[in-house]
Specification:
The structure holds 2 protein chains of 2 kinds. Helix content of chain A is 42%, strand content 12%. Chain A is an alpha/beta fold. In chain A, the strands form 2 sheets. In chain A, strands 2-1-3-4 form a 4-stranded parallel β-sheet, with helices on both faces. Chain A has a 4-stranded parallel β-sheet with strand order 6-5-7-8, with helices on both faces. Chain A folds into 2 domains: 169 residues, Rossmann fold, CATH 3.40.50; 111 residues, Nitrogenase molybdenum iron protein domain (Rossmann fold, 3-Layer(aba) Sandwich). In chain A, helix 2 packs across helix 5, helix 3 packs across helix 4 and helix 5 packs antiparallel against helix 6. By secondary structure, chain B is mainly α. Chain B is globular and about 80 Å long. Classes of the chains: A alpha/beta, B mainly alpha. At the A-B interface, helix 7, helix 8 and helix 9 of A face helix 1, helix 5, helix 9, helix 10 and helix 14 of B. The structure holds zinc ion. Zinc ion binds next to loops of chain A.
Chain lengths: 292, 419
């Protein structure tokens, strides 16, 4: 334990892998695609659980305490991390420390609201929509941020990290064309939560409306009526929900608009098929692609 | 109107069915003084469904329902057995223990399951607005079966002992498990307790209590649905609040019905003294701290903005109005900008990252300008309040004095009026 701590303080020595803790599974997957064998990555929010309702467990404190790098979504999405970092008392990964990585640093945020900007939880989307990792082009930004941090923490391996990232981007690029073609005439959509603006922007998808305007507040009858009306007008093809969102509300709108329900995953592991970042996007694209 | 009806017909039917069965059980629950038993049993059912899911059964399948039912019946047996202890430990405490342990155990189980949380949640968070035909038909059949069979069984099992207690909790558990999945925990609790409470307030015989509970519960549900549609509010929460209001009205009605005129007069006097005290306290508060929130003045101004004219001069009124107008204009501009960006996600030429960043920074500066205008509005008002605080406090005190002192003269009028 003490030895491990000393090793950590000195930077990375020899074969000891760099310990990185990410808040979400998808960031963990992106970190692995840069760090490869050179890092040991763990995540804090169990796969498929709503990040909004996450409560850290005692072992999470130990994980953060022993980490050399902490990777977070930012944009107020994982605010619960801040008290955890305070409590862990690990200076390396505190805000401003060498091991503190905010993946949103270089992202062009969507839906930055005018009005109501304050420290509220991420799902209120006060500082902008936090679901930016769902645009595969943003994965290039996120991995660049991760690369910069890993090279800073572990300079001897900087070249290898860079090579890993380039290999990942190559795979991503190859997939990107395929994904764009698959979603070329995709019909209009309605989503349960406003999770998909970045995904929509990249793949030119039209989201007609959102069921749950404020997180945790079920929709009103008149809002549902308006959505159903607009959905029929726009010939909505699918009602999009995530596994943790209520099935019944989506089913209800589907029966009103004649659309189907598409269950999408916004995080790695929320659905068994979404094993890593690329298979996550792959799954979502296939779930939405018009059948031919 | 037709759209509203098409959206509210099924929820209204669901409300009527839920009130019909829950008012009946609610009267029993009130009589036994086990108010939170529905929460405990619903949580136990959720625990059963979670266990089934962990064992590899599909979440909405037959096995899940069987597990939920089995757990509920086991909890019913437990509650029936522990009733004997209620001399030492109140039964409500036992029910509370069942509730927290079931909830906590379910959380621990979910932690083991990779995609677990959603299943527990869906069992406890029905939404009456999106209830489907087939599940409602099933529920009505179930309620009818339980509603017809249970009273007969209860009569056959008299005098009451362990078996009759068990039969009550088991029958009730079956009903609650299904209704919570339809309407959610909060609303089911309201359906269970409030109509029954209204019935108990206004009648003594069981049959009349039940009739009153049915009528009041159904009527309140329809009013709540209409309010939720008309004011664009979340349906379940609106219904619960409407039920709360219905109970308050029923309580007042009972007071009016039972008490003598004199007591009514006394209540009126008390109300006016309270109003006078509130005004006097507000007067002191604004005199001491005119820049702080003034709850009474703020809410009066919110209802009647013209009141501002009484203490603000024309110049500060104009400054305030101008700031508010600018704030609205910036908000409109920001909304328009965001809508244009959202449209370009799928229509026309896509925006590049630089343009998106520029839009975000425009949104931010709009936000700052809006805050600036809000600050101006507040500051102008605070200064006016500070300058005129003695006048405002004096006006409040005057009204308070009128309310408190003129009482005897007012009261004598209805008394002397011939009958
Ligand atoms: Zn969100």
């Amino acid at each position: 334990m003490t030895i491990a701590l000393f090793l950590g303080l000195e930077g990375v020595v020899g074969a000891e892998p760099l310990r990185l803790v990410s808040t979400t599974t998808e960031l963990e997957s992106l970190a692995i695609s840069v760090g490869g064998e050179l890092i040991v990555a763990t995540h804090l929010i169990p796969a498929g659980q709503d990040a909004e309702n996450f409560q850290p467990r005692p072992q999470d404190l130990a994980r953060v305490r022993e980490a050399q790098a902490v990777l977070r979504v930012g944009v107020d999405y994982d605010l619960w991390l801040d008290p955890l970092l305070q409590q862990a008392g690990n200076a390396r990964v505190r805000r401003g420390g060498a091991g503190y990585i905010d993946a949103s640093t270089d992202i062009a945020l969507l839906d930055v609201r005018a009005g109501g900007v304050g420290p509220d939880d991420g799902h209120a989307h006060g500082r902008g929509n936090p679901h930016y990792w769902l645009d595969p082009a943003n994965a290039a930004m996120i991995t660049a941020t991760i690369l910069e941090a890993l090279a800073r923490l572990d300079p001897p391996n900087a070249k290898r990290y860079e090579a890993n990232r380039l290999a990942f981007l190559e795979r991503l690029d190859a997939k990107m064309g395929e994904w764009k073609r698959a979603l070329e005439n995709a019909p209009a959509l309605i989503a349960y939560h406003d999770t998909w603006p970045y995904f929509a922007r990249r793949f030119r998808l039209r989201f007609v409306g959102i069921v749950e305007l404020r997180p945790g507040v079920p929709p009103s009858a008149s809002h549902l009526a308006k959505l159903a009306r607009e959905g029929i007008e726009a010939r909505v093809g699918a009602i999009v929900r995530e596994p943790h969102e209520p099935a019944r509300d989506a089913q209800f709108l589907a029966s009103r608009t004649g659309a189907r329900v598409a269950v999408l995953a916004s995080s790695v592991g929320a659905i068994p098929e979404a094993r890593d970042y690329i298979s996550l996007i792959d799954y979502d694209v296939r779930a939405l692609a018009p059948s031919r | 109107m037709i759209e509203a009806l098409s959206f509210l017909a099924l929820p209204a039917l669901a409300c009527a069915a839920l009130v019909a069965i829950h008012a009946y059980f609610g009267l029993h629950v009130l009589e036994r003084n086990v108010i939170f038993v529905d929460l405990a049993l619903a949580q136990v059912a959720a625990l059963g469904a979670t266990a089934a899911f962990l064992l590899g059964h599909p979440p909405q399948g037959l096995a899940a329902h069987a597990y939920a039912l089995g757990f509920t019946v086991a909890a019913a047996a437990l509650l029936a057995s522990t009733r004997a202890w209620s001399g030492r430990i109140p039964q409500e405490a036992q029910i509370g223990v069942v509730y927290v342990v079931a909830a906590a155990a379910a959380l621990l189980l979910v932690d083991r399951a990779p995609q677990g949380a959603e299943h527990i949640r869906q069992i406890l968070t029905g939404n009456i607005l999106t209830v489907g035909w087939s599940e409602l038909a099933w529920a009505i059949a179930l309620y009818a079966a339980v509603g017809l069979a249970y009273p007969w069984i209860a009569r056959a099992l008299k005098p009451s002992g362990w078996i009759s207690e068990f039969a009550f909790y088991a029958a009730f558990g079956v009903v609650v498990t299904s209704s919570v999945a339809l309407a959610g925990v909060l609303l089911v609790f309201a359906f269970l307790i409030i109509p029954a409470a209204i019935g108990v307030l206004h009648a003594t015989r069981f049959a009349s209590q039940l009739a009153i509970a049915w009528i009041a519960g159904t009527a309140a549900a329809f009013v709540g649905l209409a309010i939720s549609y008309a004011s664009d509010l979340s349906t379940g929460a609106t219904l619960v609040c409407t039920y709360g209001a219905a109970l308050a009205i029923a309580g007042i009605a009972r007071g009016l019905r039972r008490e003598r005129r004199a007591k009514f007069g006394a209540a009126l006097r008390l109300g006016r003294w309270l109003a006078a005290a509130l005004l006097a306290a507000s007067a002191i508060w604004i005199a001491i701290s005119p820049r702080a929130d003034q709850p009474l003045l703020d809410s009066l101004e919110h209802a009647f903005p013209a009141i501002r004219g009484a203490y603000m001069d024309a110049k500060s009124l104009a400054i305030g109005a101008e700031a508010a107008a600018y704030g609205r204009r910036y908000r409109d501009e920001a909304d328009k900008l965001r809508a244009r960006e959202a449209e370009r996600r799928w229509k026309g030429e896509p925006l590049d990252e630089e343009e998106v960043r520029r839009i975000a920074s425009f949104e931010k500066s709009y936000n700052e300008m809006i805050r600036g205008e809000e600050f101006v509005t507040r500051e102008v008002r605070s200064r006016a309040r500070e300058a005129k605080r003695w006048w405002i406090a004096g006006a409040f005190l005057l009204v308070a004095a009128i309310l408190a002192v003129s009482l005897p003269a007012w009261r004598s009028i209805p008394r002397s009026a011939p009958r």
